[in-house]
Design a protein that fits this description.
There is one protein chain. With 283 residues, this protein is an alpha+beta fold. It has a domain of 118 residues. It contains seven helices and 17 strands. Strand 15 and strand 16 form a beta hairpin. The radius of gyration is 18 Å and the shape is globular.
Length: 283
């Protein structure tokens, strides 16, 4: 089955501060409102394909309260905390994974209220391996209200060289790389990944035709440190473009590096580091 990325939540302690950094980079999001838990709120950087980066934080007067939207990631400015795929029917997806022996948490109801008073509602579910191993499966979502309530293309990126979320890079322990690939092949029927060793990422196994890659560190460094604290989560989100040079003219990007299936340039940001980049896949 094809994986359709819906969004990637970027978790930060202060929504205003991380929004300012995105604005500095030319990626101005739009405020999306307060979640139904009353504790977290978010902004949306929506693309023309209706995928989006979600900036999520705790509201100032509710910081430290209990909630289920990645509190540890939020309080640590962790950036990508999870990834979400869009499906036609959450219940059918739950049934499909249950039949394959995976742990299912859901269906769950979610909502948020936009500043204009519009109530946005959806259904979602999360999945796990059912073992002690952390498999970075996506959670899934299906809208109860129209998709346009939840995301519209942001003016800062609409019509430009950034098309949407091109690839989610999943950090995995080196000893668990093959197990993670096998789990995704069993669950989603992915083909054999293409491998390379980009600087700072160790081994990267990129799945042809799918918006997912696996990265396993080959020693100490930022990725190994991140995996120790946040196993089983994405380490990077790569935005899609078919013209990396045009993207570099429009946004502050570092020098490109070779990547399986193409080239990647990361945003020139000390705040984000290697957690947000732009991917140009070879045709």
């Amino acid at each position: 089955m094809d994986l359709t990325v819906d969004h990637v939540p970027f978790a930060f302690a202060d929504l205003e501060s991380i929004t300012e950094e995105f604005v500095r980079l030319g990626l101005e999001p739009e405020y999306g409102g307060v979640h139904g838990n009353g504790v977290t709120h978010m902004s949306v950087l929506g693309f023309d394909d209706r995928s989006y980066v979600e900036l999520i934080a705790e509201r100032e007067r509710r910081k430290g309260e209990d909630h289920d939207f990645w509190p540890e990631h939020i309080r640590a400015d962790a950036g990508p905390a999870a990834w979400c795929c869009r499906v036609p029917d959450v219940r059918e997806e739950c049934k499909r994974l249950l039949e394959r022996g995976y742990a299912v948490y859901g269906p769950l109801s979610g909502s948020r209220e936009r500043e204009d008073g519009t109530l946005v509602e959806w259904e979602m579910a999360e999945f796990g391996s059912g073992t002690d191993e952390d498999v970075p499966f996506p959670f899934v979502i299906a809208d109860r209200t129209p998709l346009s309530y939840r995301v519209e293309p942001a003016a800062s990126v609409s019509g430009g060289p950034l098309e949407g979320i091109g690839q989610v890079v999943l950090g995995v322990d080196p000893g668990g790389l093959e197990d993670a690939i096998r789990a995704f092949r069993d669950c989603y029927g992915i083909p054999t990944p293409i491998r390379d060793s980009p600087a700072g990422f160790g081994t990267v196994a990129s799945v042809p035709g799918q918006p997912v890659a696996f990265a396993a560190p080959d020693g100490d460094g930022w990725l190994a440190d991140r995996l120790e604290r946040f196993p089983g989560t994405p380490c990077s989100c790569l935005l899609a473009t078919d013209d990396l040079e045009a993207a570099r003219e429009a946004y502050p990007l570092e020098e490109p590096l070779e990547w399986p299936e193409g080239r990647v340039a990361f945003l020139d940001s000390d705040v984000l580091g290697r957690r947000l980049g732009v991917l140009e896949r070879r045709s």
